[in-house]
Amino acid sequence: MLPDFNRLKVFYHVYTLNSVVAAANELCLSQPAVSQQLQKLEAELKVPLFTRLHKKLVPTAAGEQLFKLVEPFVDKLQDEISHIRQPQDRPAGLLRIGAPREFGTEYLPRFCHIFRQLYPEVMFRLKFKEAIPLLTMVKEGGLDYALVDVYFKAGELPGFPDIFSIDPVLKEEMILVCSQPYYQQEIAGDHSFKNLLHKEFITDEDDPSILTLWFKHHFRKSPDNLNIVMTLDSHEALISALKLGMGLGVATAHLVWDEIQRGEIVPIATTQPNMVNMISLVQLQDKVPTLTEKTFRNFMTAKMQQTEILKRFQCAEP
Amino acid sequence: MLPDFNRLKVFYHVYTLNSVVAAANELCLSQPAVSQQLQKLEAELKVPLFTRLHKKLVPTAAGEQLFKLVEPFVDKLQDEISHIRQPQDRPAGLLRIGAPREFGTEYLPRFCHIFRQLYPEVMFRLKFKEAIPLLTMVKEGGLDYALVDVYFKAGELPGFPDIFSIDPVLKEEMILVCSQPYYQQEIAGDHSFKNLLHKEFITDEDDPSILTLWFKHHFRKSPDNLNIVMTLDSHEALISALKLGMGLGVATAHLVWDEIQRGEIVPIATTQPNMVNMISLVQLQDKVPTLTEKTFRNFMTAKMQQTEILKRFQCAEP
DNA sequence: AGTATAGGATCATTTAAACTTATGCTTCCA
DNA sequence: TGGAAGCATAAGTTTAAATGATCCTATACT
């Protein structure tokens, strides 16, 4: 059905150079090799592509048509193959990374920007989604790796066979917070189970059980029914609502770092250490990591250990 | 520089089918053959294109990129290769023909239309130009063949080495004509050299010597200086001027056939047979004619011998 | 005219690669 | 638990591509 592709390559060079010898030089072949390949292509297509004119080769109608087909491809290939072809000595090429929306918008682009200043040949494609869609994309090859809030160990992910390698990269601290005025009025230093239990609560729709978990973690007791005055499906909106003083809510510590520093938002600590949520790097177990992938992974984890960011992630340590 | 093209073909099939065995079947190869070619491509590009996941192959970023490069080409090739690939049993493909404007506009499209009803796989590209540009295009491969008013024999064309084969296909009769009123007033049956010599003349700018040639042909004498009242560079305009009664002019017989039939235009004959101009089919001597080319050539010459057209070309026979 | 040169075709030979068969490994599924 | 399915690997064979030598023809050179 389809002709031999290498012969198309030979044809392309002969056509552009209008010469068999020149094409042979360009292709690092002998003249007879090119001559024969061309003839075989003509035999395959059952149509002459050139009329042999004593000294020159003159393309026929079929030759002209074929060239118009082949030319854009070869040109494009010549342009873009270097972006795909990987150098072994330095990171290059496309990196496709998934992350939770909050983490992705806040930190990832910064990492990418700095990384690109070191290795300008690296390109990024970031996807921000929930855990399950991200894992699916990794599984199907749409992502090189994903940063996911995972509470599971490798092999325990429901719906996925044991195909992932899961490496924790960062602890997110989940803290109960409220606005400064709300704190003064409603809490005023009393962090007891009894006191907190009957306040107003705001929570994220995606993970409504987080409040229960927080109480369990800090007091080893589950509250019966909390007074949830609002549910939202965006972490930003949740923080806004908390700042307005609508009540108490569990927030990711590093995302309210600034507000806590300014005293706008007050964390409610207990004698227990903070509740933590692991952000893990998930990738296909069998995937041989590219130099680029490895370098960025290391870069990212290094950046995360950096004082400034780490501080934010541990800001609310009692 | 560029990778092995056949491996790209293998890659294309593996990617689309997401399976080495399936690709092997489609390519009529064994499974290890495909497996090896894929590995060699990866080695060439120094980048893994798939992560081998137990049962499945999952494309990497590089694989995805490469596929985006290769896919449109293979798809286009699959679509269009059949238009280039020539069947041996029936005419098909593109035919690029050149002709003089007058002949080309008047007859060629008709021929093409009828021919396409017989062989719908044939496409045409017609070019209407003067003799020299047409010959140049044939020489450089822009045309498969050209119909040209040629006064030369093969090998005698100035500026061209002996690369053409020239076959006369049609005699155009060149006749001296004028409008019916002009004829009655100025000629009135007197077709003698002496009488004609001092009339008004109109001629084509491209070939001003045609009048001299006409006199030479019919009376074996060249006129000294004719009273040329207008020169034009379009045959249509020349005929218009003649019809208006501006004087005498040499026209191509078949192009004024209708006007002569209607008595609008009167041919001026002598005892000599009409002066003829050969329309020849010119092509590269060494070009092996395609089935399509041969078929259309035969078709065209047959059509030209057909009563209706032939009559026009010989309408003014004395 | 005679010779040199350049571009391409052809042929026989060598060489390289692509393909095949056989086999092994691992996962998936009944 | 024992196939079946999917891919990788290894070794051997076959095919086809590349080469070097030679030939052919037209053009350029003198």
Provide structural commentary.
Two copies of one chain form a homodimer. By secondary structure, chain A is α/β, with parallel strands linked by helices. Chain A has three domains: 80 residues, Arc Repressor Mutant, subunit A; 115 residues, Periplasmic binding protein-like II (D-Maltodextrin-Binding Protein, domain 2); 105 residues, Periplasmic binding protein-like II (D-Maltodextrin-Binding Protein, domain 2, 3-Layer(aba) Sandwich), CATH 3.40.190.10. In chain A, strands 3, 4, 5, 6, 9, 10 and 11 form a seven-stranded mixed β-sheet that branches. A two-stranded antiparallel sheet of chain A has the order 1-2. In chain A, strands 7-8 form a two-stranded parallel sheet. In chain A, helix 1 crosses helix 3, helix 1 packs across helix 4 and helix 2 crosses helix 3. The termini of chain A are far apart. The model of chain A has no long low-confidence stretch (mean pLDDT 87). At the A-B interface, helix 1, strand 1, helix 4 and strand 3 of A face helix 1, strand 1, helix 4 and strand 3 of B. Chain A binds a DNA duplex (30 and 30 nucleotides) through helix 3.
